[in-house]
């Protein structure tokens, strides 16, 4: 597998885009079954540089998955090449002027944001660009023109950074630190992130748990639970099933080789149904 990550150089773009990726699968990769990507409360755009890609059993060339709060699956194949753009939690609301909660967990074609002529043009340019570096430059320039200079509410990055830091903070304390009422905080998150601050925090905590479990598979679930701020192991397992679709022990059994781009692999999508019954 060839994987490269690119951090936007444009300071305005970096306010709403976390990173871009290039992924290419080769015959050396294990390609049987489906690859799963855990939810992380971000919006991700995908541009295929080869053929249609099967995402959640929907065939697509260029797609966007908005405000992701559930696991996404794609079907890998030899020669698969694609690029992604991962927005910050609030990034989509500054590109698409629509309340983020209206697009929660929605898989759409890129015409949700761009015109068909724009999509055709950028797709052709990405395929024609010789090097991966050139592809990143082309994609960054294209997205930058669409985003412009976003005027991001400074309370949003502050709140998200606080949640990501791992600090334990109540919604009341967060509201007070932002000089906003609880109701105002709820509305801010719903509009720009698509979900409540407490639900966003649950997803971030779940992702931390996944990372710890992947890197320290010998650690007990109780240790990981407390390290991530769960009340007990039962709450940890409940959240893991809610967001990942399987238990921590099942994740370790299905887990693919550690990667920034996927979390585990299963043979059939209905395997998850069987696991939960």
Automatic annotation (TrEMBL):
Keywords: DNA-binding, Transcription, Transcription regulation. PROSITE patterns: HTH_ARAC_FAMILY_2. It comes from the Bacteria. Residues 153-254 form the HTH araC/xylS-type domain. The keyword Transcription applies. The keyword Transcription regulation applies. InterPro entries: Homeodomain-like_sf, HTH_AraC. GO terms for molecular function: DNA-binding transcription factor activity; sequence-specific DNA binding. This is Helix-turn-helix domain-containing protein. It comes from Flagellimonas sp. MMG031.
């Amino acid at each position: 597998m060839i994987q490269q990550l690119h951090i936007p150089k444009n300071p305005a773009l970096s306010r709403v885009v976390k990173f871009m990726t290039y992924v290419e699968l080769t015959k050396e990769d294990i390609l049987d079954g489906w690859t799963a990507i855990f939810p992380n409360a971000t919006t991700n755009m995908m541009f295929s540089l080869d053929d249609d890609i099967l995402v959640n059993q929907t065939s697509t060339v260029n797609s966007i998955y908005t405000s992701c709060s559930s696991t996404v699956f794609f079907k890998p194949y030899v020669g698969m090449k694609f690029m992604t753009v991962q927005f910050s939690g609030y990034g989509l609301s500054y590109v698409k002027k629509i309340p983020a909660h209206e697009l929660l967990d929605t898989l759409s074609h890129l015409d949700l944001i761009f015109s068909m002529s724009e999509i055709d043009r950028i797709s052709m340019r990405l395929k024609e660009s010789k090097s991966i570096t050139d592809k990143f430059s082309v994609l960054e320039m294209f997205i930058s023109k669409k985003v412009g200079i976003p005027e991001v509410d400074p309370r949003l990055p502050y709140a998200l950074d606080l949640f990501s830091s791992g600090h334990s903070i109540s919604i009341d304390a967060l509201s007070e630190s932002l000089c906003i009422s609880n109701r105002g905080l709820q509305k801010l998150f719903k509009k720009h992130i698509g979900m409540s601050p407490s639900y966003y925090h649950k997803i971030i905590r779940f992702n931390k748990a996944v990372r710890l479990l992947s890197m320290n598979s010998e650690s007990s679930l109780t240790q990981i639970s407390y390290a991530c701020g769960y009340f007990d192991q039962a709450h940890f397992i409940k959240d893991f099933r809610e967001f990942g679709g399987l238990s921590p022990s099942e994740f370790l059994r299905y887990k693919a080789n550690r990667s920034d781009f996927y979390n585990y692999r299963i043979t059939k999508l209905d395997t998850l149904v069987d696991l939960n019954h």
